[in-house]
Write a structure and sequence with these properties.
mainly beta; 4% helix; two-stranded antiparallel sheet
C-alpha cells in the first residue's frame, strides 16, 4: 500500500483535523501536521455567521502559516461590505449564485463570474442585489489591518 501524506503543514479547520494522520515538529518548535486527501461535502457544513450583519461563511481550508484561505461566503440580500478597503494578498471570488455588486465600479458578479482583486487594490463598498454565494480564495492574509466592520478579529482572517 502506498502512503499518501502531505508535506508538514499548518492547516486548520474541521476537515483538516479529520484528515490529520501525524504531528511533526516545525522549524520554530510549532507542531505541524501531515494530512491525507480531504473531501468536503459543503452541503453538510453549517453556515457560520460573521459579526457583519447578513454575512456568513463555510471555511473550507486555511493555511495558518501564510494566512491563505478558501471559504464559501454568503451575503443576504441587501448586505455587503460597507466601505472601501484593500487586502494584504490577492483575493479571488467565483460566484456560485446571486448578484453581488461592487458599487463604485458597478462590477456585478453573477453565477459563473470569476473576480480577481489584486493585492493592495482598493475596492468596495459592495451590496448583494439578492442572496449571493461566492467561493472566496485568498493566497495570503486577508487584510493589512483589521476592518472596523467586524467586532470579532476572527472574522477578518
Amino acid at each position: 500500500m502506498t502512503t499518501n501524506y502531505s508535506a508538514p503543514a499548518a492547516y486548520s479547520g474541521e476537515a483538516a483535523e479529520r484528515a490529520r494522520v501525524a504531528d511533526v515538529p516545525g522549524a520554530d518548535g510549532a507542531t505541524l501536521g501531515r494530512y491525507q486527501e480531504i473531501l468536503l461535502q459543503t452541503n453538510d457544513l453549517d453556515w457560520v455567521d460573521k459579526t457583519l450583519a447578513g454575512l456568513s461563511h463555510k471555511l473550507l481550508w486555511r493555511d495558518e502559516e501564510t494566512g491563505g484561505s478558501i471559504a464559501l461566503v454568503r451575503f443576504e440580500k441587501g448586505s455587503g461590505i460597507p466601505s472601501r478597503h484593500t487586502h494584504a494578498s490577492n483575493q479571488f471570488m467565483y460566484c456560485v449564485s446571486g448578484r453581488y455588486t461592487y458599487v463604485p465600479t458597478d462590477i456585478t458578479l453573477t453565477a459563473g463570474a470569476f473576480y480577481w482583486n489584486p493585492k493592495g487594490s482598493a475596492h468596495g463598498p459592495t451590496v448583494a442585489q439578492e442572496e449571493s454565494v461566492l467561493l472566496e480564495i485568498y493566497d495570503g492574509p486577508h487584510y493589512p489591518t483589521e476592518p472596523d466592520w467586524y467586532s470579532d478579529p476572527e472574522d477578518a482572517r
